Amino acid sequence: MRLQTKGYLTVYLSLSITIILSLILVLYEGARIGAVKMKTECVADISMNSVLAEYNRQLYEQYGLLMVDTSYGTENHTIVNTEEHLRNYVQKNLELSLPGRALGRNTMLGMYCKDARISGSSFATDNGGAVLNRQILSYMGADIIGGAVSQVEENVKSLKEAELDTTDVNEMARENQEQIDAIELPTIVNEDGEEEQISLGNPADTVNSQRGIGALNLAVRDKSRISNASVNLTEYASHREQNKGTGLSDNLDISLPQRALIEQYYYEKCGYFGEEMDKSLLKYQLEYLAFGQNSDYANLEKVAEMLLFWRQASNMLYLFNCRAKVDAADLAASLLTAVMLVPELKELVKYSILFAWTFAESIIDLNTLFSGGRVPLFKSDDTWNLGLEAMFSFRDHMGGGECGEGLYYKDYLRMIVFMTNFDKKTQRLMDIMEMDIRKTVGNAEFRIDHCLDCFRAEIEIGTSYGYEARIERVYGYEE
């Protein structure tokens, strides 16, 4: 019995030891698996944050935006570059430290990177620039909408209510002139005995003959003040097929207050005529936002044309309702048509003089604005510049003075930008960013549509004992 008892005891102890060892092995294996999972999560977090830490420094310094240029300053624009950076970070964070390798140590887990790929992404230009605007709003988030933006909105409202943006004075003047031209004038017999039609000698013709010179050429005497910078627009984002992400995080519904914040961003980051920025390629950036032409001159010319359109509508509104000035034009027309024996032309000539007077006064206004002075949106007796006689030689009266009250050039320009289609401004802002960033060292090939804002990574980890782990994470500057 003793031998038998001893045998049972021996078997029992052997089974107990085996069970205990098995439990230990299970616990050890579970611990190793848990450690692998924990290590994988830590490595993923560190590696993906490391990728985001490689944001383009110039884009951040100049425009306050955090995005990874996936070309990393090269001509190779592809997300594959970022995958390689991610894979490298994962592997480096799994390896032993340099002292550990020097001592020939080994890790308990023997972990290594099997794969690291980016399966989702959003770039600055995605969804018509929604990603870019989201970052702009994030940058501007702490700002309060300033009084400048509110004033722009009020100015635009006043302009629209008075229909200054839709009243085409040039067309009205043209139609009036056509009616004058349609009336046959008396004829005389010249010294050669030939019959010829007399010339009306309308004093307004002196002014009207200069309309074709152009608003900018008339308003700015010193053309050396105007930047001669130009660009090839086909090289920039709005004029090429843009790279696209996977739609990872590109939805954005912009409210009216948010649009106002974005407008304020334009004014903070972009230069314009008279307030140019050293960093810029095209010096008149707000003008480019409004018109998108390929040169500073062309954009400024478009601004001048729009200002002339507005100023003529505004000045006509005042002039045609100023009894003293209308009477002066009426008297001049009466005398002229009486002498020329064409009294039926009196009203048409009167209005031709008034239209010419409106044009001349408007060119004076533009000269004032481009010289740094102020012009009110609506004129009064006190702010009107030209008398009737001075109107005929209006170019001699352009001294760059101001009315003493009203809006500066920048205020009118902000109205133009505010009224420009929002999507067009977003696209043109991308162009401006590319123009400026490419001027900086190491960014000659910069493309905004390859700037990464957010990405999803799938990371696979292997171990020396055969266990594998896989993790998926979404990381971005606002995630």
Task: Give a quick summary of the entry.
This protein is an alpha+beta fold and 479 residues long. It has helices at 2-52, 57-63, 79-94, 98-102, 126-140, 147-161, 169-182, 204-208, 215-219, 256-269, 285-291, 296-319, 323-339, 346-370, 388-392, 409-419, 422-437, and strands at residues 68-69, 112-123, 187-189, 195-197, 451-462, 468-476. 53% of the residues lie in helices and 9% in strands.
List the helices and strands and how they pair.
Layout: H1 2-52, H2 57-63, E1 68-69, H3 79-94, H4 98-102, E2 112-123, H5 126-140, H6 147-161, H7 169-182, E3 187-189, E4 195-197, H8 204-208, H9 215-219, H10 256-269, H11 285-291, H12 296-319, H13 323-339, H14 346-370, H15 388-392, H16 409-419, H17 422-437, E5 451-462, E6 468-476
Antiparallel strand pairs: 1-5, 2-5, 3-4, 5-6
Q: Sketch the topology as an H/E string, one letter per element.
A: HHEHHEHHHEEHHHHHHHHHHEE
Provide the residue-averaged pLDDT. Answer: 87
Structural class: alpha+beta
Low-confidence region ranges:
100-106
For the record, give the distance between the C-alpha atoms at the N and C termini, rounded to a whole number: 74 Å
Helix proportion of residues, in percent?
Answer: 40-55%
Question: What is the tally of beta strands?
Answer: 6
Q: Name the beta content range.
A: 5-15%
Secondary structure tally, helices: 17
Give the overall silhouette. elongated
What profile does the largest beta sheet have?
Answer: 4 strands, antiparallel
Task: Specify Rg, calculated over alpha carbons.
Answer: 37 Å
